[in-house]
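name: query_chain
kind: protein
chains: 1
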Amino acid sequence: MTKQQLVDAIAANAGPERTKKEIDAILERLLAEVARALASGERVDLRGFGSFVPKETKARQGRNPKTGEPIQIAAKKTVTFKPAKDLEHSLGTGGAAAEAGAAE
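structure:
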């Protein structure tokens, strides 16, 4: 789903109270605030959806897959996402039920 498809879906369910332009502005502001929080090292928790967590990876030794030559991979900042149990359950991908099903 693209950002525009998300705006369209929200607008379809919002009724006449909100225009697509207003919904787009709200979504832009939401994404900007999430990005700002992550950039400053804050964790972003959206209950029932999941958590975005900033993470720093350490520099490490790697290999060029074509030549096999050792290369240095630089440290970097990244973001991880951990889905909430409700989201995992709605997708049928997580929690104790999925683990129990895998054991059978």
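note: The helical segments are 3-14, 20-39, 85-91, 95-103.
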